[in-house]
Amino acid sequence: MKLRDEKKPAFPWFGMDIGGTLVKLVYFEPVDITAEEEQEEVENLKSIRRYLTSNVAYGKTGVRDVHLELRNLTMCGRTGNLHFIRFPTQAMPRFIQMGRDKNFSSLHTTLCATGGGAYKFENDFRTMADLELLKLDELDCLIHGLLFVDRVGFNGHPECYYFQNPSDTQSCVKKPCTLDNPFPMLLVNIGSGVSILAVYSETNYKRVTGTSLGGGTFLGLCCLLTGCETFEEALEMASKGDSTNVDKLVKDIYGGDYERFGLQGSAVASSFGHMMSKDKRDSISKEDLARATLVTITNNIGSIARMCAVNETLMKRRRNKEQTRKGGKESLKASEDHYARDWF
Question: Which keywords belong to this entry (predicted)?
């Protein structure tokens, strides 16, 4: 959304992505407030800024990711810091209640929102907190957001990266990169589910397909199989597990590589294939199950993404593959690339 300098919106500046599992909220904290502005600033606005920037936890489930904070950023002619806050979507009624308790509507601010929840909770914002949402399309926001974050970087460092030698755990290295000439590109958006976009320019793109097997599937299955409660806990368990204790590999069937078709023995032939054996079930750990779940989901996403790239002829148009950071899920990205290389 472009904003002219002469029509800058009043503070506070917020943006929300209300997803199926998580709500992601970004808050712009101005650091160039003049003495005159501070004097004119209403106490309610000061209270909201203090509350958001002086805490790293909000209630039982709200978290401010301090490590993601972008400092000294210029937006619409103002300098400030971007703060990133998240909480479960199921806690949205409590968030709306907080907005009402803090009399947020008195600030006459525009609350920009995207994601399915911008539609689902629109009436609740209006009736419970007297707030109107400015709804923005989530895929438009995704593309503009990716390019914006790449342009501003992360406190002086590139935000995007790729894994060099991802299939070799000994020599795998994370390398920074920039999206100087990104088009065409395949953009795989992994949320509760997955949307895959073929992007030809900042304004020209299409949703090619998607899959229901996404982050929500990973967390849901991990909760069922391991008893974990949070996404962070599930990823931590997965990082300590060995999926080969759960999955049946090509070498378990062929005794080695399937050389005729170039399949390595380490490739997964059947996700959770060992779980047909009671002895195998009795010998695995919860960490193994979490890792196998991660591999199953990322293998599926990588397979679909590659087929989309082939069908859209993106691989012919663009040979060098670029990967981007998505919410710090490095183990997910590395796993995705590793298993895609094994199969393809």
Answer: ATP-binding, Coenzyme A biosynthesis, Cytoplasm, Kinase, Nucleotide-binding, Transferase
For residue 184, count other CB atoms closer than 10 A to its CB. Answer: 16
- CATH number at 71 reads 3.30.420.510
CA distances from 56 to 52, 83, 206, 222, 306 (A): 8, 10, 37, 26, 39
Question: Considering the domain boundaries, does residue 4 fall inside one?
Answer: no
Per the structure, how many domains does the chain have?
A: 3
Does 337 reside within a domain? no
Confidence of residue 325 (pLDDT cuts 50, 70, 90): very low
Same domain, 195 and 220: yes
What is the domain range of residue 121? 13-34+42-136
CA distances from residue 173 to 54, 240, 340, 343 in whole angstroms, order as listed: 36, 19, 17, 21
Residue 175 scores a pLDDT above 90: yes
Residue by residue, DSSP assigns 212-230 as S-SHHHHHHHHHHHH---S
Say if residue 141's pLDDT is above 80: yes
**Residue in 250, 255, 332, 327 with CA at minimum distance from that of residue 296:** 332
Q: Give the type of residue at 151.
A: R
Contact 320, 264 (CB under 8 A): no
What are the tokens at 30?
């101005």
Q: Please report, as a single letter, which amino acid is at residue 55.
A: N
Least confident of 87-96, 98-107, 240-249, 250-259: 98-107
pTM: 0.83
Catalytic residue positions, numbered: 138
215: in domain: yes
3-state secondary structure of 126: helix
What's the one-letter identity of residue 110?
T
Question: 9 φ, ψ to 5°?
Answer: -70, 155
What band does 341 get if pLDDT is binned at 50, 70 and 90? very low
Q: What confidence score (pLDDT) does residue 205 get?
A: 97
Based on the domain organization, do 238 and 259 belong to the same domain?
A: no
Q: Look at residue 9 and tell me whether its pLDDT is greater than 80.
A: no
Are 74 and 113 part of one and the same domain?
yes
C-alpha closest to that of 258 among 242, 247, 269: 269
Q: What angle do CA 233, 239, 243 make, to 5 degrees?
A: 115
